[in-house]
Design brief:
about 210 residues; about 30% strand; about 25% helix; alpha+beta
Length: about 210
């Protein structure tokens, strides 16, 4: 399945050069309701769930992708106001899970220790986040460097595209140098705002990206 990962220019080039993506820790995600989509008025249940979230965060993390690269808010929020990049990947479909977007928090289950309940918590977000059109890859925290964790590129996480934001200072040479031996197999192009829609589209005039 083809999905997209947004980041700033420096992190994007580093990801391409080092052939890996930074894993998001569950407790560091930008939505305070992550893993807390259930109704939490019971203080004991709230305490237990918070502890479970902390425990899961110690050994696992997420890679967060979108189904589309053309939404301008994704570029604005996750690619440094269109100055960053979007990386297109082929990921094994059964490794990905689509996020369920809901308008209200679901009730406390009869068995809060069940695997199904934990799974639901991991892949539920408030409906106002639905513009992200998000798929998630749940991974173990293995490769660590300076307190950060990474997932290496592989046959199950294959880089296919580097899309450079419309306001990015990155040149074609910057991208090709970071790609190295992958330059001949990974598509590279510049994005721009559409002329007839509110989508981000491909810059067709290659001369406008030096």
């Amino acid at each position: 399945m083809h999905v997209y990962y947004f980041t700033n220019a420096d992190y994007g080039l580093a990801a391409v050069r080092d052939r890996r993506l930074k894993v998001a820790r569950i407790h560091d995600l930008n939505d305070p309701f992550e893993f807390l989509g259930v109704e939490l008025s019971d203080p004991e249940f709230r305490k237990a769930l918070t502890a479970t979230k902390r425990q899961l965060s110690e050994g696992n993390g997420l890679l967060c992708f979108s189904r589309s690269w053309q939404h301008p808010m994704l570029w604005a929020h996750y690619a440094d106001k269109h100055r960053g990049v979007c990386l297109g990947f082929d990921v094994i479909a059964d490794k990905l899970e689509y996020v369920s977007y809901v308008n209200s928090r679901f009730p406390k289950p009869d068995n809060p220790r069940s695997e199904a309940f934990v799974h639901k918590l991991l892949y539920t977000k408030f409906a106002h986040w639905s513009y992200e059109d998000e798929y998630r890859l749940y991974v173990s925290l293995n490769e660590q460097e300076n307190g950060l964790y990474f997932e290496p590129f592989s046959d199950e996480l294959t880089l296919r595209q580097v899309i450079v934001g419309s306001e990015s200072p990155l040149t074609r040479t910057d991208v090709i140098c970071a790609l190295g031996a992958l330059a001949s197999t990974v598509e590279q192009f510049k994005a721009r705002p559409g002329f007839k829609s509110f989508k981000i589209v491909r810059q067709q005039d290659e001369r406008l990206w030096a």
